[in-house]
Amino acid sequence: MVEINDRKPDWLKVQSFFSQEYNDVRRLMRGYALSSVCQEAACPNIGECWKKRSAAFLILGDVCTRKCSFCNIKKGAPLPVNPDEPKKLAETVKAMNLKHVVITSVTRDDLDDGGANHFAACINEIHNLALNITVEVLTPDFKNKQNALQIVLNAKPQVFNHNIETVQRLYPEVRKAADYLLSLKLLKNAKKISPDVYTKSGIMLGLGENKKEVIQTLDDLRAANVDILTIGQYLRPSIKHKKVERYVTPQEFDEYKKIAKEKGFKAVSSSPLTRSSHNAAELLAAFCEK
Fold first, then answer.
1. Are 131 and 109 in contact (CB under 8 A)?
2. Which of 72, 119, 149, 258 is least enclosed, having the fewest CB within 10 Å?
3. Using CA atoms, how far apart are residues 175 and 171, in angstroms rounded to an integer?
4. What are the backbone dihedrals phi and psi of residue 119, each rounded to the nearest 5 degrees, phi first?
5. pLDDT above 90 covers what percent of the chain?
6. How many Å apart are CA 127 and CA 155, to the nearest integer?
7. CA–CA separation, 246 vs 155, rounded Å?
8. Residue 4 has pLDDT above 50, yes or no
C-alpha cells in the first residue's frame, strides 16, 4: 500500500497529450459543438485516446443535476436538451471514422425519462451510418424513470455500461444521490431485458475502501451478470473534491484482475489509469474472443 501524499507515484505519470491527432479530435469536437467526458472529467488518458482518434462523447449537456464528491463534471441547472445533438454526434463519428463509439451523459434527474430517448436517438443515428459500428452506452441509473432502461436497450447498443463506482459503504459519502442496490438492479435488468447485450461496470479504488469490500462488490456485480469490468485509481480533480485516501499499487490492481477473472468476468481492465471508456474497443474485442 502507498499512503497518500502531495505527489503522485511514478506509475500515475502520463506522457504529454499534444499531437496532430489530438488537435484534429479537438477541432472536430468544437466544430460540431460536442462535449467529451475526456475533457469534462479531466481524464488522464485523453492524450492516448485522442491520438488514436478515440473519444467518449458526453451528451445531454455538460451540467449534471447531482453532486457526487469524486466527479469533475459541472453541477447545477442544465440547459434544455439539444435536439440536433444526435445527428451532430453521428456526423462526428463518421468524420472520425470510428468503429466503436462510447456515449455517456451527465445525470439528468430533471427530465421525465432521464434522457433515455435522447440516448436512443444517438444510437439510432449512429446505426443508420453503418451496421458495423458498435455502440457502447455508459448511462446514469435512471432513478425513478419508468421504462427508461427499456427505451435505451430497444435501440440495440452492443454494450450497456453503468458504473457501480465504489463499495456500498462509501455511497453516502461518494454518491449521495445514488443507490448501490439500484445500480446493481439496473445492470441485472439490462441483461434480463436484452440477453445479447454485453454488460459492463467499473469501480474506483483509493476512496477509502478495503479489500474485503472490493471483493464483495465484484461478487455483487457477477451476481448481476456483468460481463466486463474496469478497475482504476481515483484521482482527485481539485481540492473541492473528496481526497484520495491512498494510491493503490499496480501489483494490487493485477491481483484484483486475477480475482475478477476467477470470478467469471469475461474481460477485465485493472490498472491505475484504467477508466470506463479507456481502450473500450480493445476490451470489447477481448470479450468477443472468449
1. no
2. 258
3. 5
4. -55, -50
5. 57
6. 9
7. 40
8. no
Tell me the pLDDT tens digit for each residue of 57-115.
Answer: 889 988 888 887 777 777 888 889 999 999 999 988 888 878 888 899 999 999 999 99
Residue 229, all three cell numbers: 469490468
Q: Is the pLDDT of residue 203 over 50?
A: yes
How many Å apart are CA 117 and CA 135, to the nearest integer?
A: 16
For residue 223, which of 275, 251, 187 has the smallest C-alpha distance?
Answer: 187
115 contacts 152 by C-beta, under 8 angstroms: no
Q: How far apart are CA 231 and CA 56, in angstroms?
A: 17
Q: What's residue 153's pLDDT? A: 98
Using an 8 Å Cβ cutoff, are 166 and 208 in contact?
no
| Amino acid found at 274 | T
Q: Which three cell numbers stand for residue 203?
A: 469501480
With a cut of 50, say whether residue 3 has pLDDT above it.
Answer: no
Cα separation of 38 and 132, whole Å?
24
Q: What is the DSSP track for the chain? A: -EE--SS--GGG-------HHHHHHHHHHHHTT-EEHHHHTT-TTHHHHHHTT--EEEES-SEESS--TT--SEES-PPPP-TTHHHHHHHHHHHHT-SEEEEEE---TTSTTTTHHHHHHHHHHHHHH-TT-EEEEE----TT-TTHHHHHHHT--SEEE---BS-GGGHHHH-TT--HHHHHHHHHHHHHH-TTSEEEEEEEESSS--HHHHHHHHHHHHHTT--EEEEEE---SSTTSPPP-EEPPHHHHHHHHHHHHHHT-SEEEESTT--TTTTHHHHHHHHHT-
